[in-house]
Amino acid sequence: MAETATTRRSRITPEREAELYEAVLDLLREVGYDSVTMDAVAARTRSSKATLYRQWGGKAELVARAIRHHKPVGLLNVDTGTLRGDLQALTARQDDCEMEQNSSLMQALSTVVHSNPELLAALREWLIEPEVAEMRQVVQRAVDRGEVRADNPAIDYVMHMIIGAFVARGMIDDQPPTQAFVSSYIDAVVLPALVA
Amino acid sequence: MAETATTRRSRITPEREAELYEAVLDLLREVGYDSVTMDAVAARTRSSKATLYRQWGGKAELVARAIRHHKPVGLLNVDTGTLRGDLQALTARQDDCEMEQNSSLMQALSTVVHSNPELLAALREWLIEPEVAEMRQVVQRAVDRGEVRADNPAIDYVMHMIIGAFVARGMIDDQPPTQAFVSSYIDAVVLPALVA
């Protein structure tokens, strides 16, 4: 993209941006990705479509960034001084109800992604890659503290383990992920693989 | 279900059954789950619809069992004498091309599952639960050999780790799973968590 997010974003206030993202998430939950239109977002938020396109390029980016914005606390804001503390802080970012809501939202989007490469690209750019990068920093701090060996091959798979747990929870156990499940999975799988 | 699979299945030969399953998988790949009809399966395999319904109850079970049948070697047929050997044998069940084919088939089905609880139930009964049970036996043998502690909490998460790797591979790395990836993930994640 030619313009950076910052220059595009600078035209609206952070409060207005947050308001727009909330409206987009409400629409998503109400009607599903395919039925969300820029017209509906514009109407609900009393914005012009021109503004929406100027700021976000299109629906895929707007949706991906709305979800990104909704994540309560980025991993980067957490630095407990231990790998276990930092990873377990993941579980405190959302209560069980929010985890279930976000999990069904992501499940619904994952069905759209197969026929919509633009949405996949936007989710990868605004959600997956930033999470992978933040996780890399969490693990790098653990390497620097001597908790994790720099050449441990599990370092490349931290997000695979975690995303996998969320997805497999529904498939195998027919239950949404909960704080207790994620916490137990981190202690049973992620930490032993990383400190092995 | 009132009748057992065995009594229902006993009316056709294993060769005929295999032929039917191949036809179902071909149709699935050609037109997708929603467009597969019992009429089309009956026409392609020159069976009567009555036979299909009698043997398989319906489309969801027929599809789930066709996929199950297609899996080249069950885990239970593998007993190498070590946990690593048994788990690594997973990677040898399919070559990279088959792995990619099965992975896109499962991805396509996972999008259907959200709006089709009957298919989810059939996949759980015929694919996920048998795999979980087979994996439990692989791990139990490792516990009996003293390779894995009986109270290791990762035992409950082996299928979460493995299914997660397959799903996350596409999301994070934008690549289908390969033998090399699965093999490396088993050594980096699954084994360290289990023998921790």
The CATH class label of the largest domain in chain A is: Mainly Alpha
Give the CA-CA distance, first to last residue of chain A: 41 Å
Low-confidence blocks of residues of chain A: 1-6
Count helical runs of chain A: 10
Described by the principal axes of the CA atoms, the overall outline of chain A is elongated
Instruction: Tell me the domain tally of chain A.
Output: 2
The main sheet of chain A comes to: none
Q: Helical content of chain A, roughly?
A: over 70%
- Which superfamily, in CATH terms, is the homologous superfamily of the largest domain in chain A? Tetracycline Repressor, domain 2
Q: Structural class of chain A, please?
A: mainly alpha
Order of helices and strands of chain A: HHHHHHHHHH
Task: Please render the helix and strand layout as text.
2 copies of one chain form a homodimer.
Chain A: H1 5-9, H2 14-31, H3 38-45, H4 49-56, H5 59-70, H6 83-92, H7 96-113, H8 117-144, H9 158-173, H10 179-195
Organism (chains A, B): Streptomyces aurantiacus
Keywords (chains A, B): DNA-binding, Transcription, Transcription regulation
GO molecular function, one term (chains A, B): transcription cis-regulatory region binding
Write up what this structure looks like.
Chains A, B: It comes from Streptomyces aurantiacus. Chains A, B: GO terms for molecular function: DNA-binding transcription factor activity; transcription cis-regulatory region binding. 2 copies of one chain form a homodimer. With 196 residues, chain A is mostly helical. Chain A folds into 2 domains: 5-68, Arc Repressor Mutant, subunit A; 72-195, Tetracycline Repressor, domain 2 (Orthogonal Bundle). Chain A has 10 helices and no strands. In chain A, helix 6 runs antiparallel to helix 10 (179-195). The longest helix of chain A is centred in the middle third of the chain and has 28 residues, at 117-144. Residues 1-6 of chain A have low confidence and may be disordered. At the A-B interface, helix 7, helix 8, helix 9 and helix 10 of A face helix 7, helix 8, helix 9 and helix 10 of B.
